[in-house]
Specification:
UDP-n-acetylglucosamine1-carboxyvinyl-transferase, Chain; four-stranded mixed sheet; binds uridine-diphosphate-2(N-acetylglucosaminyl) butyric acid
Amino acid sequence: MDRFLVYGGRTLEGRIRTAGSKNAVLPIMAASLLTNEEVVVHNVPNLRDVRTMSAVLRKLGVSVTFEAGTLRLRSEDESSWKAPYELVSTMRASICVLGPLLAKRGRASVSMPGGCVLGVRPIDLHIKGLNALGADLIVEQGNVTARDARLRGAEVFLGSAFGSTVLGTANVMTAAVLAEGVTVIEHAAVEPEIEDLACFLQAMGAAIEGVGTHRIVIEGVKELHGCEYTVIPDRIEASTYLIAGALIGGTLEVEGAKAGHILALLDTLQAAGVEVERDGALLRVKGGGDIKPVDVTTHCYPGFPTDLQAQIMVLLALANGISIITERIYPDRFIHVAELNRLGATIRKESNISIVHGVSRLSGAQVMASDLRASAALVLAGLVAEGETEIHRVYHIDRGYERIDDKLNSVGACIERI
Ligand code: EPU
């Protein structure tokens, strides 16, 4: 199992290019099941999750090739309809084959994703939404299964105590595009990745209105065709590098990110006293200054993303005072707290809140990565900590960050992969 050895204290200076968005490309890949024509997707990051989704799709009769950031997908054999536990259990996002399978093949069986380090993570809203379209899904032997689905448009409400659901919206949207009649999704997720999926479906010939809003109206069509599409840049990857620059620049430039997708982060950085300059397609951050404490609450888009909560915690761990971080999407997403405390941070967790007492320095230690974004936070902490930080189980980070060690080393970091 790979480990990272991070030698702390090197200033970051230079430019990092943002990769394509992981969370946009995964549902887009699943949506290739909706046609028998070839779908070509550009700006695809080379990530373990993309390889896992490719494996799921191959099991479902899709031919997949990936070369130089371009995926070619063609659904060739429609006889299979089951996404097995071995794959789904390694990546929850496999659940987004459910909607396309029901819509195109009329049947689907996807292993129920279990809980994970982020908490219980139910899929009740996916099931409710797809059943409203007539899927008749049941849970049996650990799988969510429907055998003879004839989908019809319906009104579907996707709100919950935690806001909307990103992949639940993806599933209902991809099912509705081939359903008979009109579907209205109320309280749809408005994350840029869902907007990107809708634009991709439009490129396939889907009739969708209200893209990027909480009310999406879809008129089912008889069939969809192949298309060529370029996915949006990864706002979480770009933001992670901006936080790295804030912690330990130099002047670090992040290229190719959409500033409009990361306004909540930019606002938080500004409140923390970190300067970020926008210069065309570049975001330039100057780091190393005093950090002011800031209270952060995670919300659905366009609020502060839960996928950056661990990374911003590292910055605030070094602030001049006390910050309160409230997690409203995944109340249990705080496993990184104990690991950051091993590096000298002073963070106390109380239910879905972490109280971060800023300290003046972190010092390197051995730590354990627990999930994708928590691992990224440990890398950031290692960059700023004095001495060496050894991060175990970095396979988590390879799920969602393309060559994070190479990218950071190219701007002056010293990270060894062992
Ligand atoms: N929820 C329900 N019922 C459902 C679905 C969700 O109660 O049927 C709850 C969840 O438990 C959570 C909240 O609703 O409290 C939001 O969950 P959501 O369904 O939106 O999450 P997701 O679609 O499974 C995606 C991203 C996550 C990201 C969340 C929130 C992908 C592949 N995953 O997950 O990304 O944290 O939205 O923005 O798009 C990551 O990239 O590291 C990651 C975990």
